Amino acid sequence: MLKKIRNGGMIEWGELDDQLYGTSADAVRSVVRSGRMCVLDCAPQALAHLYNSEFMPFVVHIVPPQLEEFLQLENLRQNRRPVDQLSKVCAESDQIANGPHADQIHLTLMNRNMDVTFKRLTDALELLRNDTQWVPESWMS
């Protein structure tokens, strides 16, 4: 696996309990070539490996509501997260939205309600299946 990481064969990787794990470009390639849709939950840095004509990703950024509303929604949960953790989620989301990969985000969904957000995501994916999509000119050459 270290060899794959060094050679750029891994889209994303990490270590847990002294074990390396990750998503290989070959695995994604295999899913795409089979005609299926590959859904990945990955860090923005993975776009460096994915955002190209081979994979042609549709990038969705799911964001939390503003912190005040996020806190109100969190109070409805049984297992509430601390304010500093929610604040960190909001800050990280803002960094993604305004970071170096911001121009690669095709759709932003605010997650106030899991069911509504999921429906909006599946609706967007259905449009991808049926409607003409714009892609970067560089993907066409």
TrEMBL record:
Q: Which Pfam families match?
A: Guanylate_kin
Q: Can the keyword Transcription regulation be found in this entry's annotation?
A: no
InterPro entries linked: GK/Ca_channel_bsu, Guanylate_kin-like_dom, MAGUK, P-loop_NTPase
Q: Does the keyword Ribonucleoprotein apply?
A: no
Q: Which residue spans adopt a coiled-coil conformation according to this UniProt entry? A: none
Q: Which residues form the Guanylate kinase-like domain?
A: 1-126
- Name the keywords, alphabetized: Kinase, Transferase
Q: Which GO terms describe its molecular function?
A: kinase activity
The record, for PANTHER family, names: MEMBRANE-ASSOCIATED GUANYLATE KINASE MAGUK
In its UniProt entry, what is this protein called? Guanylate kinase
Q: Which organism was this protein described from?
A: Oesophagostomum dentatum
